[in-house]
Structure formats: C-alpha cells, structure tokens
Amino acid sequence: MSIAEKFLTMEYGPAPEDPTEAQTWLARHSHRFGHFINGSWQAPATGEYFETIDPSNGEKLASIAQGSSADIGVAIQAAHSAFPKWRALTPHARARYLYALARLVQKHSRLLAVLETMDNGKPIRESRDIDIPLVARHFYYHAGWAQLLEQEFPEYEPCGVVGQIIPWNFPLLMAAWKIAPALATGNTVVLKPAEFTPLTALAFAELCQEAGLPAGVVNIVTGDGSTGEALVKHSDVDKIAFTGSTEVGRAIRRATAATPKRLSLELGGKSPFVIFDDADLDSAVEGLVDGIWFNQGQVCCAGSRLLMQESIAEPLIGKIRERMSTLRIGAPLDKAIDIGAIVARVQLERIQRLVGQGIEEGATCWQPEIVLPSRGFYYPPTLLSNVHPTSIVAQQEIFGPVLAAMTFRTPREAVELANNTVYGLAACVWSENINVALDVAAKLKAGVVWVNCTNLFDASCGFGGYRESGFGREGGREGLLEYLQPSWFKNAPKLPATQTPAPAGGESDASTPAVDRTVKLYIGGKQARPDSGYSMEVRSSDGHLLGEASLGNRKDIRNAVEAARKAEAWARATAHNRAQVLYYCAENLSQRRDDVVRRLSAAVGAKQAAAEFDLGIERIFSYAAWADKFDGAVHNPPFRNIAIAMNEPLGTMGVICPTEAPLLGFLSLVLPMIAMGNTVIAVPSETYPLITGDLYQLFDTSDVPGGVVNIVTGYASQLLKVLAEHDDVDAVWSFGDEANAAAAKAMSVGNLKQVWTNEGRAIDWFNPKLAEGRWFLEHATQIKNIWIPYGE
Questions:
Q1: How far apart are CA 340 and CA 329, in angstroms?
Q2: What is the C-alpha separation between 669 and 685, in angstroms, rounded?
Q3: Can you tell me the distance from the alpha carbon of 109 to that of 38, in angstroms, rounded to the nearest whole number?
Q4: Cα dist. 645→400, 415, 483, 585, 649 in Å?
Q5: Among 15, 281, 735, 746, which residue's beta carbon has the most beta carbons within 10 A?
Q6: Is the distance from CB of 12 to CB of 336 less than 8 angstroms?
Q7: Rounded to 5 degrees, what are φ and ψ at 404?
Q8: pTM beyond cutoff 0.85
Q9: Mean pLDDT, residues 660-666
Q10: Three state DSSP letters for 23-48
C-alpha cells in the first residue's frame, strides 16, 4: 500500500511493544518461581509447579510454585512473627516504606506493564496507562494514611495477619488495593495471587526486597484454589480480604463463619449502563466502549447490561454497531489494538456457552466482521439485543466482551430494571439533565455510580458492592477501616454460652405484674398475636414468674420483614426529621421512668434498671444528634471529577439484642439503625422480653412510622435462623454468645447479607466509649460513591 493510500484509509499499523526486558527478567529467574516467604524465595514444600501461559499465543511463560497447606503455614508464621515489630514502627516509618514502594513501581513501570499484558492478555495501553499508574497511586495515597493513622484513628489497632486472595483481571492493581491499606494500618500480609496471572505479584515481591521491607511483612504464596482454601481456613489468620466470584465468596463466608476472622468480599457484578433520551449519544457510546470492552469485558463492574430509553433505541444501536466495527482486536502487546486476549481457554469456553444460551432464549446476536488471530484465546465484541430481563445473559455475569441490550420508557422503569439483579457493584447513568441523573443514581442499588462517565477509579474513593456483590470497601477512608478494629475489642472477655430456657416452676411475687399480662409482638406499628399461639414464661433470677411474652416464629418474622419493607420511605425522610422523632422518643420515655425502672428491676435489679434507663435516655439523645451529622464526603480524585461518598442505610435489618442489658442493649443497637434510615426487626433480650411492652408504647406515641421498628419476642437462636436466611433482610446484627455469632454468619450465605456480631465477646453497654458512636453507625450504613464530571 502506498503512502497516499495509507493516508486516505488512516488504518492503524502494528505498533508492538518491545518485550525484551520482561523476557530477560523471566530468564534471570530461569522461568521458574518459588514462593516469596519471610523476605526470600522458597521452593514449594511438595515440589510441585504449574505453568502460566501467554493467552495471546498459548505459549508457556514460566513454571510457578504450587502452594500447599504447609507453604501457607510457613508464610503465616513469618507474617505472625513480623507483626509485632511492624505494628510497633512509628507511623512515619511505615509511611516511608509505602512511599518507597510507590517510587519503585514508577521506576519499573514499563517492566510491570509488559509482564501484566503478557500474563493476562489485556492491551498494553491499558496496563501502561491505567493499571500501573493506579498501583503507584495507591501506595502514595496510603503512605499518607500511614503518616496520619494515629491522629485520625487514635483508638484503633490493626487486625493482625491478613490473608488476601486476588483475581486475574487486574493482577497487580488488585494486589495494590489490598496490600497498601493493610501495610499502612500496621498489618502483615499473606497474598495469594490468581493461578492464571501470578507474575506481577512475584515481580512486586522483588520491589519489597529492593525497598528493604522487613522480612515477613509481605509474603506471596502462589497456587490454585486449594492454596486459597488453606489460607482461608488457617486459624492464625485474623482477616480475609477476597476479590473474585460470588460462588467462592459464599464458600469463604461459610468457612470463616465459626471464627472471629474479619472478612471483606468484593464479588461479581452485572452492572447496568443506563442511557436516557437526552444524553449525548456519541459520548455515551464512547463510555460504553470503556464500560464493556475494556479489558475484554473481564471486569467485575463492566457495564454489561445496556438499558436505553425506548425512543433512542434504534439510533443508539446503530451508533454502537458502527463503533464496534472500528474496534481492533489482536496481539495485546500491540499498542494500536483495543481488545486483547481472553485470559484462558476455560474462560473463553464459558463466554461462548453463555452467549449460546442467550441466543437460545431469544436474544439477537450481532458481531462485527473482525478477523481473530489464529493463535491464542480471542472473542469478538458482541451485542445481544432483544434480551428479556430474566434471560441468563441479563442475570449471570459473563465476564467477557458481551453487551446485553434492553429498553425502558420511564426513569422509574429504568431503576426497576437496573435493580433487577442479585448484584449491586456499579452502574452508569447518562443524561444531560443532572436532576434526573442524580435522582436515578441515588435509587440504584450499587456501591459505585458513574454519571456521564465510566470505569473511573482512584485510591481516595471507596469501591465495593451491595447485595451479592459483597461487602466492605477498598480505597478511601472506608477501605482503611476494613483493616482496623477498636483497640479494646479483640481482648474483650467472652460471654458464657446461653441455653434456651425450659419452663420452670415458681411462685409469682405480689410486687410483679400479673401472670396473665402477656406482651404481644409489635409488627407494622401494631400489636400482634404470635402465629404459634404460644407464649414463653419470663422469670426473675430467683425463679419468680414475672409475666409471659409471645413466642414468635418464622411466620411472625416474615410478617415483620414485609412490614419493614413497606416502611422503607423512612430512608427518604430527612435526617433532621429522623432526629426530631428520636428526640421525641427520649421525651416520651423519660416520662415513664418510674414504671419502666420498677418493672425492669424485677429482672436485673434496681441499680442496673435505673442505670439502663438513664443511660438509655442519653443514648437516644446521642443518636438523635448523630442522625444529621454522620455525613458523607466529597472526594477530589486527580481527574476532572468529584466523587460524592454518601452514607446510605443498609435497608431492612435484623438484630438479636444482648441478654445482659434488656433495655440499654436494645436501644444501643436499634437506635443507630433507625437514625441512619434503616428499618428493623428486633429480637429483644430473652432475659426480659417484657420490655417490649414499654417499647411499643414508646414508639406508638413518638411518631415513629409503622414498620420502622418491629419487635418479635422468642428464642434468639430460632429467630436468628429465620432472619439470617431471609433474602429480603439486608443485614443482621447478632450480639450474643459465640454460637449465635457463628450461626449468623453461616446462615447468611444465601444472599451474602452483611453480618456484624460481637464474636461472643462481652460489651460494656454502660460505657459510651464502647457501646455507642461511629463504630455502630459505620455498620448501619454502606457508602455509595457517585462520580460526577465537571467542565467542558
């Protein structure tokens, strides 16, 4: 082709990146890597290795050590030994190490980018211009947090030894997301990189050596799923941070349920890409290219569900097809290509199978006429239209360059379609009407919403999901909290195991309420008889019969959940209005002091009853004060964007209240929930569930809307099971013994609801430093980051 012809066609020619430095690095290691443990390279205990290959051509890159439980044990011991000294370093000293790692990432950026592309198959432009700069950014950002840690988190301490498991789609970036905050907060790390893409994590191990990081602070053990399983199950790991599939996330939740391990999960997604008829369609199409064909669609937050307003569907589809025809697919080291290789044959086959199922269910498949390379694992950009909302391609994560398109008519329908998924990781909204965009963004069940932009990330902005996309956040202040815990909590004494009380004989006391005074359930703002028709005896510590409480069951919990769901308008009430309602609660409760204290004294004694009541009034005041002061933040990432971090209620929450403080324990847990806009199903203390009678009189007279607080009395272990397994309950708090804590976590795996427990530890409910404040509010909310661009 002549120069004139090339000028007319303006076609891109090949622009290959030179892989020599990466190949030299591999050769220097003889194309074989052991584990990085205690600051040095170690051969696998079993002597087993597996191959990592270049997905663009199927050729072997290196042999990688297969980690065993023995290797994991050695790594954890190294991290455990290194923890005291690393934790004891001054904040400035840890900040210096993180700063050194950031500088070394920049120094070796080209090597890391090329290695990432060779091992993963993503285009070199993405590795070079997005992934590696963000890796450096995370270490810079968290170096700053390390410096400020004691000032900003004075009463917190690190978790200890952290096990981290990362996926193959952003290998080094995911490692940075996890290692940087863990080190900044004083933890030590055992990292298990993905089996398909271990090379950049191993290259990072060399940077740790070059930075002089103390031995054992960062340990990297490679291997398959069995290696990760050994890490999760090891008893000396204090926290697990996992990014990967929802299926594996469920298995990890189940495996850690009976332990006090902290857990954060960043799981799958089926993110909606919502385009309204007033959007700049050309910009939206470019955003869509980044949203679904970035990294071959192998992105947990990929905009894989296109929701377009019906009036623009036809012209928009035409623009999308035209743009798809210009996408270039080929060798990922070519700087002129848009789409690289799928990471492995098994993933390619999964994409092919799911697309085939979608077509069988009625979807229309369109692919541009692109010639795929003859070697390696490639799949063309794919548009599926006429997709039904229940189709497999609209519900399951494909994790490939496949877009499923659907239409809507109104903003309300758009929100319903967008939220019609078990996931809730991310979403995009495109509209020139900022009122529409922000209104819809606030209603989407997603941890991140991009307005008129897509796939923007920064270390200062938290990232994570709702629902079956996991819980916890990575990045920002909220990401730091995943690696910290209150200093007093880990060493708090254990509560004794509780047993379901059996009916016992005893005489009633003339000073106690009449035996036939039975407290009913409180559901939807009304007293309700239990479905079972039975009641439970309530006795004092010396066996005297104090009264009876309704024995709630599964049907009663279901009714309470339904009532709580109907009251979700409480979340839309202004924080000021919620505060007023809580102040009114304090006013009304204070007028009942003599009666409430007298009745409560029969169960816990006069001194404790008086203390519970007086501190209860203070606690109501405290959460009324917090209601309009637990604000979000506005982040300023290094782009022409702001990111609004909003504290949102979790939704419908269940809570098992502590037995030891019937009134104060109830108020200490239920109040932060409703102050933040949640609705609640509360199971009160088994010691004195008769307190329910005083509480529903309080809520009835204090303008608390019906259904915001629902109270179901009964045996905690039985009602906890129903709450934890209920798919319409968004979160569960359980404050009882160790068995109840383990049960809450184990039984919540169905919809991976957020679970917070005391891990069977005693909390001094009479100490406001331990029993109220931010720690409780942080567990009653989840943060949504809404990204908004500005400027021309």
A1: 6
A2: 12
A3: 25
A4: 29, 20, 19, 30, 13
A5: 735
A6: yes
A7: -105, 120
A8: yes
A9: 96
A10: HHHHHHCCCEECEEECCEEECCCCCC
pLDDT at 131 over 50: yes
pLDDT at 7: 67
Structure tokens at 122: 């993503």
Contact 642, 460 (CB under 8 A): no
The Cβ-side half-sphere exposure at 527, using a 13 Å CA radius, reads 13
Cα–Cα distance, 792 to 790 (Å, whole number): 7
642: phi then psi, degrees, rounded to nearest 5: -115, 155
Four-CA torsion 477, 481, 487, 489, nearest 10 degrees = 150
Average pLDDT over residues 151-175: 96
Buried b (16+ CB within 10 A) or exposed e, 480-508: bbbbbbeeebeebeebeebeeeeeeeeee
Secondary structure of 42-107 in HEC code, one letter for each residue: ECCCCCCEEEEEECCCCEEEEEEECCCHHHHHHHHHHHHHHHHHHHHCCHHHHHHHHHHHHHHHHH
Catalytic residues: 266, 300
Mean pLDDT, rounded, for 322-350: 95
Burial class (CB within 10 angstroms; exposed 0-12, middle 13-18, buried 19+) of 282: exposed
Distance, first Cα to last Cα, the chain: 40
Between CA 170 and CA 697 the distance in angstroms is: 54
Task: Give the pLDDT band of residue 13 (cuts 50, 70, 90).
Answer: confident
Q: Which of 718, 768, 759 lies closest to 736 in space, CA to CA? A: 759
pLDDT mean across residues, the chain: 94
Contact 401, 341 (CB under 8 A): no
DSSP assignment of 383-429: EEES--TTSHHHHS---SSEEEEEEESSHHHHHHHHT-SS--SEEEE
Distance from CA of residue 327 to its chain's centroid?
Answer: 33
Q: Rounded distance, CA 305 to CA 428, Å?
A: 10
Q: What is the 3-state secondary structure (H, E, C) of 594-609?
A: HHHHHHHHHHHCHHHH
3-state secondary structure of 644: strand
Judge contact between 408 and 420, C-beta under 8 A.
Answer: no
Round to whole Å and give the CA distance between 254 and 679. Answer: 26
Number of residues in the chain:
792
3-class state of residue 474 by DSSP:
strand
- In terms of Cα–Cα distance, which of 99, 169, 119, 92 is closest to 19? 119
CB 348 within 8 A of CB 369: no
* DSSP conformation class of 520: P
Structure tokens at 724: 């934890």
- Which of 277, 283, 284 is closest to 312 using CA atoms? 277
In this structure, is the dihedral angle defined by the CA atoms of residues 660, 666, 671 and 674, taken in order, positive or negative? positive
Provide the 3-class DSSP secondary structure of residue 743: helix
What percent of the chain has a predicted confidence (pLDDT) above 90? 90
pLDDT of residue 359: 96
Half-sphere exposure of 528 (CA within 13 A, CB side): 24
The pLDDT score that the predictor gives to residue 513 is 46
Smallest Cα–Cα separation from 436: which of 617, 608, 233, 274?
A: 274
Full 3-state SS string of 654-678: EEECCCCCHHHHHHHHHHHHHHCCC
